[in-house]
């Protein structure tokens, strides 16, 4: 493990008259900072850091990550990976080579070796935070999520391409029943859990959500808020489990209005949650 840098505190004096005096040492535990670094056209590479050491999640590329870390005088400690797609793993080898970071990823997916492979029921301790590993197959067969219940402020969830704000990942390798089961596990996390998804798909997901539930007031309010954020080029993320449970049709397959819409679109749909989910997922694939 690398030594933390000690010079960072001295470089941030706020006024010129102050600049020669060392700032008093703050002995309170520093809150971790969370930052979604945009990558490609709509990915976010999540960075969590304590002012000295950082972890990154699903780095699809390395140049932007290295530049950001250097700009903020951070040492890369750990890389977490949720699944094997290239837009989540493409930067891993270069980051490991440049920083010596420890890499942790799913047990049952092709991965850039070497790495620590983890599966459901295990946990990893990173930057003093404990992350539980949650198995969430569906988008890919071995997809995992990382959940930190004790994160300062509120719990943290890195869920890759499983849960998106207002939507969910496509089923490349799993069945509707598997994905629904995975989403149900995430939906049961505390309402204040921060949901760190890997793509900025929110507005297009919400367009679909409104087609399913035109009378959902919470959804309408959330759409207005997200439109404002995107108009200013701010991320709509992280979302929260509480918000997703109230607006995301893929978590609301038991709601009468959602069942009705699914059946109106595909009359073969039954009231069974898996049937409703399967109809929504197929419908969304072709929704414009
Ligand atoms: Zn993916
Ligand atoms: Zn992706």
How is the biggest beta sheet arranged?
A: 6 strands, mixed
Instruction: Give the number of DSSP strands.
Output: 14
| CATH class assignment | Alpha Beta
CATH superfamily: Ribonuclease Z/Hydroxyacylglutathione hydrolase-like
Architecture overview:
There is one protein chain. The protein is α/β, with parallel strands linked by helices and 288 residues long. It has a single domain, classed as Metallo-beta-lactamase, Chain A (4-Layer Sandwich), CATH 3.60.15.10. The protein is 31% helix and 22% strand. Strand 9 and strand 10 form a beta hairpin. Helix 5 runs antiparallel to helix 6 and helix 8 crosses helix 9. The N terminus is likely disordered. The structure holds zinc ion (2 copies). One zinc ion binds next to loops.
Write the layout of secondary structure elements.
Elements: E1 33-39, E2 43-49, E3 53-57, H1 63-71, E4 75-80, H2 86-89, H3 92-99, E5 102-106, E6 116-118, E7 123-126, E8 129-135, E9 144-148, E10 156-160, E11 163-164, E12 167-168, H4 176-187, E13 194-197, H5 202-212, H6 217-231, E14 239-240, H7 241-247, H8 256-265, H9 273-285
Parallel strand pairs: 3-4, 4-5, 5-6, 10-13
Antiparallel strand pairs: 1-2, 2-3, 7-8, 8-9, 9-10, 11-12, 13-14
Helix pairs in contact: 5-6, 8-9
